[in-house]
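Hi V.,

You were right to ask for the full record rather than a summary. Here it is.
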Amino acid sequence: MSSVVLMAQDQMTVNLYFNIKNIPADEEVQLAYRYGDKTYIREELGSFQNGAYSYQSDSVNRGVYLLNFKNKNAYFEFILNEPTFSIIADYNDLDNTQGSLGSKENEVFFGYIKKVTEINRKVSEVDGNVAWDDEKKQQERERLGEEINAYRDLILEKNPGLLVTDLFKAYMDPVIPEVPAGMSEAEAQSFQFNYYKEHFFDNLNFENDALLYSPVIYSKMQIYRDQLTYQEPDSLLKTANQMIELASVNQNIKKYLIIEFFNYFANSKTVCMDKAYVAMADQYYLSGEADWIDPEQLSKIVDNANNLRNNICGEKAFNFTLKDASGKSVSLNNIQTEWTVLLFLKSDCSGCAKELEKLKSIDLSGADYKIVTVHLKDDAGWQEQVQDLKGEHYIHLTDAAGVIDWKRQYNLSSFPLVYVLDREKVIQYKRISVELLPQLIEKK
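Predicted structure:
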């Protein structure tokens, strides 16, 4: 269950003037804004009269905005952080003609864009220079890289306090110091990685919530989460809490990160990621900290978390005692084997039939295992469904009396459902296909 909400900044009143030379009379223009990794239309401006348009609003969030030209299928960005200014451009060359009157933010922003465009053109010329060898080309690319970095550093030095300055700084990587003497190659790589990760957010101003209305917060979060964090629940949960703690200086950014990470865990296809989902639900939603969420949505999150908390990977599975076809009672905890596979089935389930066909074709020879099928009804079809699965490795059970709350204990809401338990009946994997069992179950 995902949680979605947009943050409300301290909004500002603006008077903006756009002058787009050579724009066709029938061109449809949109004013849009960035938020996280997405772009939203704020207003349909329609056509410009003689290339001009005046826009007023008393409720605008500071951030990165854009003019989108629908017919041309093109746009350009600008910074909105001042109450009154003009934006100018030529429709026939939008990328190279942006300018601004009365806006220091956009004077800096457009100047940087033009400098980057110039450097990129020079890099292309270097790449296409057949008279230079690879070493000389690389040297020139590095020189051009240093030139753009020096230009950016000069902007940062001369323009403290601007939103565009915070944007540029946020994208800067930490400078890794020299590796201490005496380290092996592996130790040096570990030192560099750990330093980079530890200082990854040094240049991000978490106090400025205008950065929410730009791609930078999401971009930094995605890199830190997807590239700098080991992809398993405990590590990802630690990463989420670290970022949220850093953002505690600004409640809007903190809320945004709570929601983004919570939705990420809720929608993850990674096996056992619901461990992180439940932990975040408990820490931020069930605790009452997420006071922005409406009661109905919160109730769904609470119910979903409670259905998951008894069947989290790494925790012992709920013990049950059911009867087999002969009427003999079998307790889960009394099944002595290295691996126990629980397979929840319905006799009238087409997906179950496909899963059983896969089960018949896999090779688990050499492994110490039991496959326990569980039916929730003692109908005429359940024994017929598993009649081909015989032998010492199979146990077939049914909850004819319906005495167990399977939804709460195993989050059983659809069929088929697979759990893989170790010797101590600790959940190792769940919600997988049986065709993965040969890769997951260790052989003797």
